Amino acid sequence: MDCGRLRELLLAGGAPRGPEVDAHVAECAPCAELVKDGGELGRRLPVRAVGGAEPEVEAMLGELHGKLARDRGLAAELRRRPTPLRVFLALGAVAALALAVLVWQRRPDLGVYPAGTLLIAVASSVLLLGACFAIALRPLQRVEVPRRQRYALLAMALALPVILAARPHRAPGSVASAGWAGAEFVQRAAACFSYGLLLAFPVLVLGWALDRAEHRSLPNALLAAAAAGIGANLLLELHCPITEVFHLLAGHASVGLALVTGYALFLLLRGGTRARVRGADSDRTRAR
User: Fold this and answer.
1) Whose CA is closest to 266, among 221, 227, 226?
2) The pTM is what?
3) Is residue 281 assigned to a domain?
4) S-S: 136 plus which of 79, 223, 241, 282, CB 3.0-4.6 Å?
5) H or E stretch covering 248
6) Residue 161: which of 259, 89, 265 has the closest Cα?
7) Among the three residues 49, 70, 91, which one is the final residue of a domain in this structure?
């Protein structure tokens, strides 16, 4: 069920009902108004036959139908899902990776690692993950969260791994978490940084696939990248037994910053390339 089909049913004189209608109007405020009171408002709206529409409208409708026809594949199916389900899928991907890490690559000192320390990291990470994905994957018809607030949430997402790295969390009696610094610092930090990027990449790709705007909004795209960074830090918390602050800053907290910076540059460069292509196409059109 989409807006066009719903309007067709209204103009046919019916009062649309059913699970598909309920699911659509739950996310589409304009359609919810149209079907209110048995669809009275929707049936009273004036309509002109498509064949009698203005040429500009016909061109726009043709372009829209063309885009809808090309919107196929797994990503298109994911974007059609309700927003709560899309957010749940994004969080579920992080949970699945966390389970895989716990089963095959969990930290060797997990048995003596303070449960309270681990709980703080998990709870704070999940809360910020949920907030970032909820805003990054918002339905397009809803009013967007102000840009300043989105960047404030982005700053919080980047700051959380730094705060967690600085907290007192050494596990008493843990041999594995002691002495991993000095000459091996760069090697250990680089290994965790690379592993964190590897874990974050599928989360970022899934965030793009679930976003109905395909990350065309830079703040939303950066929130998705920051969420992937938070997820990577949470997974590294379950994997890496090193508790030295400088290792956690260089090898763990830096993952989110690298993701956000790299993704911002990628999107800006891609946007500039597309603008140049569109400009060249316009010049050729005017020349003809």
Assistant:
1) 221
2) 0.69
3) no
4) 223
5) none
6) 259
7) 70
